[in-house]
Q: What sequence folds into this?
């Protein structure tokens, strides 16, 4: 990693305050920068905040927005909210699994895509929706999946995305 | 933006803003999440360019606003001052729109909403049937103001309620007014807001005065997005409600707990808090009154259970969001073990309205025990999807047919799911049920935070029950046994029924598990988790029995129970289905009837979606 974790963690703790209640906010910031929670960083946070590492992992695995694994260049999130469900989200998800050649949710071997589900992104009026990186694709259907994937596969990276670490 | 040091300065500033308000036309484009996904920002850019190109920068204003609610027809636009309402605007319309405003010509006819019943085009928002039956006291300003400009909010009467409270009211009077208005918690449970505040104030006073205030914006209910739209579209209304609340209970600090999945809401709220602080409306010595109050944003990290108030408090404290038994209720002992008032976004936003227009006025809206308006997200199998704000007590029929425009493609209404995973499915024959807290509970559902998902004949109720149970099994925090194991077991049984492995005794077991969870779970999540199952069993028992006894899914949803076939008399051999088939299961010569190899068919249904002559049959 180019920046040493020590500096990163120290900076974050100056920003959010070196106290227990900052833990989730700090983890969210780490997740935003690296797009996952690297283990060395978690160790540093544990030392700095004097919270036992298992407790940090308890928090990191409890909340859905944290990932302990690196993610692909593009994160594809299928909304599984109720409105999306009744309008065909499960079929769109299956089609994504087929087209990305993934046996289950996760990252493709070439680290191009990470496929996830999300509980509800609040675009229920346009159901079913799929969010790729920061862009929301409304009224999705199976036939639209292939074109959408192709569009992103052609793009090397989104502007704000950090490449996945191997 | 000047710093305002007294209520009088605020009023003077408001007068200045209104006098400055230009009479030049203003184009407002909805930039809520729905319209943004539909391309609102491209439309904004195109309009901006066009205004420059036609050299009318000084004559025409352009503004992006929050969600107007009618997401189905986005991107939406309103042209002020006359209120011309356009829907489904595209970048290609930009030149024509700007030209028509510049030349003072009439509206662009083709962008006006066309009433599907009469076929007539209507010019104003209020004439659109979707809006005509609504009463938008919380969402009314969303289409007028730029959510990132405090001046806009003040100009339409914002912070009037706060001014009134600071200059005319004692804290007890505020609580008395909120109590008298009949306002009940809009997060779902419907606890009287004024009572909650007075309990908190009482406990705070006996324990040294320290207390907190929290806005619950952890809108985890899938299928609901009104809290998001309010925070994105009118964040100052929520802040104003919180400041009034802090004055009433005597809190110095408050938190907004908002989902990280709502980045735009976080951003707009952050900007609004900053502006309120700069102008002296928030922070130390608010408007010179001596009252001080600060608001911090805490972002949720994606856990449904954190909508439960004790779990939310744990999360604000930086811990895992595990609920604890009540009592003590947060109003007695909450954040950092101090008395804490937690209210939903819409509850806070209702407070300034109550203060401004009076408790009696507010109490005159709604039914005997449910006062004011409720905001629903009307989604699913319905023509007009979007956000609607209606008086309490409106019937489901008015919601679905008058506002929602009925069910698409001539299909039949089957059920309405209200209240998310804690709520239940109300069958079509209860369509005249008035919507209020008591009636919904009586029907086995609950108000919840206002998600209203409409289901038609192609929705399988067993699959819906299974869907909610999968969600809840995943989101159960795992702390207490009845919820952790109960949701898992129910999910297993429901999956078995959906796959044709069910038995009659499964239904009894589901009911037993449901009652056990209701009686013995630790928090609201577990206590209400069985509602979707219990209500579907109560109203759609035959559909369960069809799955169990005949191994058929009447709605043709459950994959293990259906077969896809092609009708050779209808198939024209176009080959569209072959291209989309996930399992390469469709064979046939070009222009000749095709066949589906059922051994390879994954039952994804893609062929059905693309088949023009409707030759794909499901049985």
A:
């Amino acid at each position: 990693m180019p920046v040493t974790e020590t500096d990163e963690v120290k900076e974050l703790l100056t920003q959010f305050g070196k106290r227990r209640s900052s833990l989730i906010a700090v983890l969210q910031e780490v997740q935003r920068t690296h797009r996952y929670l690297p283990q060395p960083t978690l160790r540093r946070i544990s030392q700095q905040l004097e919270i036992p590492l298992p407790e940090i992992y308890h928090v990191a695995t409890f909340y859905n927005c944290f990932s302990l694994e690196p993610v692909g260049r593009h994160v594809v999130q299928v909304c599984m909210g109720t409105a999306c469900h009744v309008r065909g989200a499960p079929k769109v998800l299956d089609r994504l699994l087929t087209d990305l050649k993934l046996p289950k949710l996760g990252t493709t071997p070439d680290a191009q895509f990470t496929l996830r589900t999300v509980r509800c992104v609040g675009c229920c009026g346009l159901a079913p929706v799929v969010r790729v990186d920061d862009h929301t694709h409304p009224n999705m259907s199976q036939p639209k999946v292939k074109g959408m994937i192709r569009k992103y596969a052609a793009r090397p990276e989104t502007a704000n995305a950090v490449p996945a670490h191997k | 933006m000047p710093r305002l040091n007294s209520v009088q300065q605020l009023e003077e500033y408001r007068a200045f803003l209104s006098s400055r308000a230009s009479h030049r036309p203003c184009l407002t484009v909805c930039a809520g999440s729905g319209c943004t996904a539909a391309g609102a920002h491209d439309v904004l850019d195109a309009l901006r360019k066009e205004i420059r190109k036609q050299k009318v920068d000084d004559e025409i204003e352009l503004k992006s606003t929050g969600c107007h609610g009618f997401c189905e027809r986005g991107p939406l636009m309103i042209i002020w001052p006359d209120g011309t309402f356009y829907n489904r605007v595209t970048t290609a319309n930009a030149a024509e729109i700007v030209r028509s405003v510049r030349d003072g010509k009439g509206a662009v006819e083709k962008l006006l909403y066309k009433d599907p019943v009469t076929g007539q085009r209507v010019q104003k928002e209020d004439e659109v049937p979707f809006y005509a039956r609504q009463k938008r006291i919380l969402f009314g300003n969303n289409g007028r103001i730029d959510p990132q400009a405090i001046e806009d909010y003040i100009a339409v009467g914002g912070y009037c309620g706060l001014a009134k409270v600071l200059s005319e009211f004692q804290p007890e009077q505020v609580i008395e007014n909120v109590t008298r208005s009949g306002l009940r918690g809009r997060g779902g449970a419907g606890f009287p807001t004024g009572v909650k505040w007075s309990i908190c104030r009482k406990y705070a006073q006996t324990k040294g005065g320290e207390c907190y205030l929290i806005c619950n914006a952890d809108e985890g209910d899938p299928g609901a997005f009104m809290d998001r739209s309010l925070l994105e579209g009118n964040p100052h209304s929520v802040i104003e409600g919180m400041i009034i609340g802090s004055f009433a209970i005597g809190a110095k600090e408050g938190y907004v707990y908002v989902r990280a999945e709502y980045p735009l809401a976080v951003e707009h709220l952050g900007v609004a808090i900053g502006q309120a602080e700069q102008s002296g409306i928030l922070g130390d010595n608010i408007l010179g009154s001596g009252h001080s109050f600060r608001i911090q944003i805490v972002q949720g990290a994606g856990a449904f259970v954190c909508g439960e108030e004790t779990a939310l408090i744990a999360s604000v404290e930086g811990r895992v969001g595990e609920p604890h038994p009540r009592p003590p209720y947060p109003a007695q002992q909450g954040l950092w073990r101090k008395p804490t008032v937690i209210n939903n976004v819409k509850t806070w936003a209702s407070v300034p309205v109550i203060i401004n227009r009076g408790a009696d006025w507010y109490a005159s809206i709604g039914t005997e025990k449910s006062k004011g308006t409720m905001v629903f997200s009307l989604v699913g199998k319905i023509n007009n999807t979007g956000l609607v704000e209606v008086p309490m007590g409106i019937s489901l029929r008015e919601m679905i047919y008058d506002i929602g425009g009925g069910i698409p493609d001539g299909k039949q209404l089957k059920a309405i799911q209200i209240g998310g995973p804690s709520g239940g499915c109300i069958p079509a024959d209860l369509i005249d049920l008035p919507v209020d807290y008591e009636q919904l509970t009586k029907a086995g559902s609950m108000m919840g935070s206002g998600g209203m998902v409409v289901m038609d004949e192609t929705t399988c109720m067993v699959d819906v029950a299974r869907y909610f149970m999968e969600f809840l099994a995943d989101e159960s925090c795992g702390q207490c046994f009845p919820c952790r194991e109960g949701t898992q077991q129910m999910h297993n049984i429901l999956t078995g029924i959906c796959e044709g492995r069910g038995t009659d005794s499964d239904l009894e077991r589901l009911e037993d598990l449901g009652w056990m969870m209701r009686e013995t779970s630790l928090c609201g999540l577990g206590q209400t988790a069985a509602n979707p199952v219990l209500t579907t069993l109560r109203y759609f028992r035959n559909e369960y029995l069809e799955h169990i006894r005949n191994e058929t899914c009447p709605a043709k949803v459950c994959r293990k129970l259906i077969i896809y076939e092609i009708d050779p008399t209808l198939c024209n051999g176009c080959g569209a289905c072959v291209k989309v088939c996930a399992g390469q299961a469709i064979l046939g010569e070009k222009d000749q009837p095709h066949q589906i190899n059922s051994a390879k068919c994954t039952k994804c249904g893609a062929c059905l979606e693309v088949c023009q002559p409707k030759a794909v049959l499901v049985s």
